[in-house]
Every structure is written in structure tokens, then in C-alpha cells.
Fold this protein.
Amino acid sequence: MGQTSRVRELARSIIEKGAIARTIIATAESCTGGMVGAALTDIPGSSAVFDRGFITYSNGAKIEMLGVAPAILAAHGAVSEETACAMAKGALIHSPAKIAVSITGIAGPDGGTAEKPVGLVWFGLAIEGAETRVEKRLFKGGRDDIRMQATEKALSLILEAISGQ
């Protein structure tokens, strides 16, 4: 199964399971630029599950739209565990969602460093009434590959959260 097919299948499962569980989802995306929200809304019936997506590519957008503290960005940078956590929590706070996923990373081809290489992506998963979970991944490939892998991982996190409710 190709990546596009896998993303479509994950999105379909989220919509089906989310509708049954009456789950409302929000996304907070940086390096994926709305790809997770697009994958969800490609599936008929998504309006029963998906509420909104915040595309917060710049630090200013993260601060204004999600309430990420400027001090977090100054101390840790946009691509960090702390920022991914704050983005997911912010998406939950600024929406009626019960589950929020965040994605922040370096898709390349430029912008990487020894400490934060191209392909580094942080994910946050905030679930109403639970501790926010953060995961780090290092994806390989070009910009499109990294963004698609990050989209797939974010969808997998949402599906796991819905299945665990």
C-alpha cells in the first residue's frame, strides 16, 4: 500500500470511528501546512468529526492562534517537544475539540542543523481530561516524503486516541 493510500485509509478509519465515538478533532499544523486537515476533509462525513485546523507556520501564528508562549519559542525553538506540547494544548483550548494533534518539524531541504536535522518532527497529542503526549520522529527522504510521513504519523496518533477512548 502506497503512502497516499495509507493516509486515505487512516483518515477513513478516523472518520468512521470518530463518528461512532462522537469525537471532535482539531489540528495544529506547521511543517505539514494543513495536510492532516486536508486528509480528513477528503473523506465524506468528516464534518461529523473534524472541527478545525490551525495552520501555524510562523512563530507569530503559533503565539496568536494557539497561545504558545513566546518564552517557549525563545528558549526551545519552534521545532521542539515544548512547542509541540503547547500547540496541541492550544488547539484543544481554542476549539470545542476533544482531541487535538500538533505537528512541528523541519521538512527541508534547508533549515536543518546538527542538533535539529532535516526530517526532525515533533508531534503533540492532547486529549480532553488527559496528560498531553509528545513524540519525536526523524523521517528520511525529501520534503514531500517527510511531510507525507508526518501526516501519516499524525493520523495514526489520532486513530490510536479514538480507539483508546
Notes: The two ends are 28 Å apart (CA to CA). The chain has one domain: 3-163.
